[in-house]
Amino acid sequence: MKKNVIFWVGVKNDHYAEKYGGWEWMDISRKTWEYWCEKHDVIFFPMEKPIKDDLVKYRINWQKSIYCFDLLDEAGIDYDQIFLVDASCMAKWDMSNVFELTDHKFTAWRETDNLNWVYDSVKGYEDFFSYKLDIQKYFSSGVIIFNKSHRDIFLEFKDLYLNNVDRFVELQDKIVHKGTEQTPLNYWLQKNKVKMNLDLPFTYKLTHIHRKEMFGNNWQLKEDDTPYFIKYGKNWVFNGISKNQRTEVMSQVWGLVKHNYIKNQNINLLLDSINEDKHTNPTTTSNKFKSDVWEFFQGYDDKICVEFGTHKGQTTKVLSYCFKHVYTININLESFAAAKMLNVGIENITYVPFNLYSDRDLNVEKSNVFMIDAGHKYPEVIHDINRCIKMSADGDCYIIFDDYGLFPDLKQCIDEYVDIGKLKVLKKIGQLKGTYYPTTQNKVLKDYEGIICQSV
Ligand SMILES: C[S@@+](CC[C@H](N)C(=O)[O-])C[C@H]1O[C@@H](n2cnc3c(N)ncnc32)[C@H](O)[C@@H]1O
């Protein structure tokens, strides 16, 4: 059965490894496209080796374009549409199925990042093609979609190149100095009157992210630190930056978004994506605490959870994969800005600005699980427990407390509730009694870091 194909170009050439700061960025790109292909039942076809080894005469950009159909035929793939992308692109996890948007035409995106470059390049090849190119339709060849009906035109493009290779190399490297196969492909398709779709949103080819100021966010609102390109882009193209910085930039982006590319989440991957344990950030819970919560609440994914105290949303992230929905409560909006970035793409978290120690009711769904980690003074903890009891839904009500062994007030309060039979201890969790925290106020844990109780 015919399938659509991502034709992904990632040729690691040892000779250029230093110039490109290594090839780790290619591995990152690949993970995003493999995930996207699986999600949309699309074939992932990597081109990892050149067909011709002479990369001066046959640049990879030329090779991908002229040998793409040969490679697919050789592999015996029954293709319909082909999306040609290279390894500087990352597919956003929720990019829609772009094959459905093409009208089955040759689909590309206009090149608008450097118009002077485009003009010079077009002028440079004008005599060779003896054709007046409509520059308004000039597209970038890094991200293009075509289909079986374009096979002949591409094979003829191959002949054109192979019959004129020396002239093309001379124009490319000695005369025009503006690009490789992109401008010739523009000429070839226009001259041959190929019908094009150039009108899809630019977010499917989000190039030169820095020029569009999309690495930033709306810092004036202080609402959400997630960079614009992550929120609004669909296919992020990391070009226009120094080649040797690509690994660094793409690794940072991957660190922010990788939790969205996992089909079956597990706690180790989650902790890795949170990337801070209590030693580096004393305000969050420890990895041990998070792992214990994860383990205890497997099978509770139909329950609602309310978290008191968001901080950077690190425990929130774990809770969001345990429960159907998480309401995380904080007094301080800046906390949400950081938490929203850490948890970008996670849709079952609602951020609720609220002062927990006011007398107002907290207006969220009744819940079965509460995670308490906001105020640590005796009256605040009493207030928290009473609020949980008031807000609890039918069925069992669980309350998870952080800092049980760290703050004497907190421990005293919980112990008293246990003594009078209002709370039952189910499990002590997290770091053990005696653990030394050099950076926290109370230094040594007098009991376990946390405790899971049930309201009786
Ligand atoms: C210890 S941190 C929470 C850490 C978080 N649970 C984690 O594991 O990463 C406490 C949080 O409670 C918030 N907080 C303090 N007082 C509050 C109040 N009255 N109402 C709501 N949030 C409050 C603080 O702004 C802070 O973000």
Describe this protein's structure.
This protein is 35% helix and 17% strand. It is α/β, with parallel strands linked by helices and 456 residues long. It folds into two domains: 3-205, Spore Coat Polysaccharide Biosynthesis Protein SpsA, Chain A (Alpha-Beta Complex), CATH 3.90.550.10; 265-455, Rossmann fold. Helix 1 (24-40) crosses helix 8 (246-257). The protein is elongated, with a radius of gyration of 28 Å. The model has no long low-confidence stretch (mean pLDDT 96). It binds S-adenosylmethionine. S-adenosylmethionine (SAM) binds next to helix 11 and strand 10.
Strand order of the largest sheet: 11-10-9-12-13-15-14
**What can be said about the biggest beta sheet?**
7 strands, mixed
**Rg from Cα:** 28 Å
Bound molecules: S-adenosylmethionine
How many domains make up the coordinates? Answer: 2
- Count of strand segments: 15
Q: Return the CATH topology of the largest domain.
A: Spore Coat Polysaccharide Biosynthesis Protein SpsA, Chain A
Percent helix, as a range, is 25-40%
Task: Give the class from helix and strand content and strand pairing.
Answer: alpha/beta
Poorly predicted parts: none
> How far apart, in Å, are the first and last alpha carbons?
59 Å
CATH superfamily of the largest domain: Spore Coat Polysaccharide Biosynthesis Protein SpsA, Chain A
